[in-house]
Amino acid sequence: MFSDPKKGQQQTEGGEALTNAESHTPQVSSEVSPIPARWFALWVRSHFEQLVQDQLSARGFRILLPTIRTWSHRGGRRHLIPVPMFPGYLFLHHAIDKHSYVQILQARGVVRILGERWDRLAPIDDAEVAAIQQLVTTDVPVLPHPYLREGHRVRITDGPLSGLEGMLLQVKPSKGLLVVSVELLQRSVAVEVDCTRVVSIGNPPPPHVAMRWHAASSALPV
Prior knowledge:
By secondary structure, this protein is an alpha+beta fold. The protein folds into two domains: 19-124, NusG, N-terminal domain (Alpha-Beta Plaits, 2-Layer Sandwich); 127-217, SH3 type barrels, CATH 2.30.30. Helix content is 19%, strand content 32%. It has helices spanning 49-58, 98-105, 126-138, 207-217; strands at residues 38-44, 62-64, 67-74, 77-84, 89-94, 110-113, 143-145, 153-156, 165-172, 175-182, 187-194, 198-200. The strands form three sheets. A six-stranded antiparallel β-sheet has the order 7-11-10-9-8-12. The chain has a four-stranded antiparallel β-sheet with strand order 2-5-1-6. A two-stranded antiparallel sheet has the order 3-4.
């Protein structure tokens, strides 16, 4: 498990010091790399998520910036606006070598790529990213949720989220929340689901865990 890098570090680390080199950054090489492409997490400065995505996408990198919609009050009116699903983080799919590692860090706003060093980065499981992508493409209401490490794992069997897997928090007999997590970030989000359209794919939770879930789910909106 890779711990959250934000603890004990300043928010502005690494962002501005690389700005002068940005204009001299070459484009991503088109040569075939022997290193397999994996998903990685970029830690970026607060509110720099879109800027980092724009910079790296322009350089040929594959970037995923998942968003959720939330209400904002502007000019005395309420508006639904997109905000990062995981504030301070983006996902990058690339076969990272030392050269591309430097290119990525030269983007204004990037603090680091999660991992020990350029050749010991911490990849994210493809299935976790695929679940996040499914939430984004189906455009269902997604809610922030406290990180859930363990639970009753299920799969949705019907509807636009068919095939999506996550941890089920049952609020009512036929209504619950499906919690989808990214282990490396220790972050979770949730979607409301019909409990009659899920199947169990894991062992039932132990009694002490089930009691904690019941206490947590009873505080959720119904």
